[in-house]
Amino acid sequence: MIEFQHASSEVSPVIWRDRCFLPGHREIAEESPVALTYNGSTYAVMMATPADLEDFAVGFSLSEDIIDNPSDIDGLDLIALDGGVEARMWLKPFVSRRHLERRRNILGPTGGGLCGVESVAAAMKPDPGHVESTGLAGTAPQDTVGSCDRSLA
User: Fold this and answer.
1) Where are the domains of the chain?
2) CATH of domain 32-105
């Protein structure tokens, strides 16, 4: 079994409460791109929590009417990729023929996934110009933690 990243992470953000920056604690869900492939062809790339991915792949296949029953899948392998996971499924021959016919009729992205993305690598392209603004004119929130004037609260 491949070890994937944890389903959640603990973070210690700086939070704004009562006109004051305070240390905080949050547990946040992790997400990774998951490419769902059938017989070697990518069907969709979805963002998902990297836990219970076999169940996710089978449930997705059922909800998309790719399969009628989990036994329609001959094999399911989870492949760790740089930046994500591929859920590689092999369908039984009669299901595979039906899937190929249906896939030809899909004209474009239908929503719910990363529209137009056909691989984990494409989903994980770096952001070329992300700029973050705190609106605090040069003061980083972490530099002000605990230095609140409580009389303002």
Assistant:
1) 32-105
2) 3.10.20.10
